[in-house]
Design brief:
alpha+beta
Length: 209
């Protein structure tokens, strides 16, 4: 499956690089609002971290030192789930092979029906995302490499917020909303809605021309 997935991604990128929008190809040439993209990337990043954390055996433990000394002179510590440790999460957040590598599986697109911007995961449950037929992919200068950049930027700027939620004994149900809207304000609801309306209106107008 991984070989087929890699081949598809190569062909997809080649299509973005070479194709022209003619009203029939599901490809749209243009730029999108970075504020909306960063919001969407934040939400996807949260979900990818959540999925990665869920795959780690909860029985695997890590020792966290308390800073207090035992009578024998050693530091006392407590055992926590490894997947909730700062060590695991920090390694997951950082570097080219960290969680942001998953952004290579996403692409910017707009729904054909209303021009709404989406950052779409191209493969779900081992197959191509069925929503791919409902969108026009957006070709911009960086060929979607900015998605990984945005991911790294979000985690670098708000790593403490991510750690707070993912190190908690129980993960809240609406963690993506809590992090991306309530805490970081990357998805400030009013601003994002206004930007989405402007993007959609511009997109639909260009399709009519």
């Amino acid at each position: 499956m991984k070989g087929h997935k890699s081949l598809f991604l190569i062909l997809f990128i080649a299509k973005l690089a070479l194709a022209q929008y003619d009203g029939t190809e599901n490809l749209f040439l243009g730029n999108v609002d970075g504020k909306i993209v960063k919001c969407l990337v934040c939400e996807h990043t949260v979900n990818e971290v959540k999925d990665a954390q869920a795959k780690v055996d909860p029985k695997k433990k890590a020792e966290v030192k308390s800073g207090r000394f035992n009578p024998d002179g050693t530091l006392s510590g407590t055992l926590i789930e490894f997947r909730k440790s700062e060590q695991y999460l920090t390694e997951l957040f950082e570097g080219d092979d960290g969680i942001c590598k998953t952004m290579d599986d996403y692409a910017k697109a707009k729904y054909k029906s209303d021009g709404r911007l989406v950052v779409l995961k191209m493969f779900v449950d081992g197959g191509m995302n069925p929503l791919m037929s409902e969108v026009d992919f957006v070709q911009d200068q960086d060929l979607n490499k900015s998605l990984k950049h945005y991911c790294l930027e979000v985690l670098d700027e708000f790593d403490e917020v991510f750690l707070e939620y993912f190190m908690a004994p129980k993960l809240v149900d609406d963690v993506a909303h809590q992090i991306c809207t309530e805490r970081t304000k990357l998805c400030s609801e009013k601003e994002v809605e206004e930007e989405e309306d402007l993007e959609a209106d511009s997109y639909l107008l260009e399709k009519e021309l």
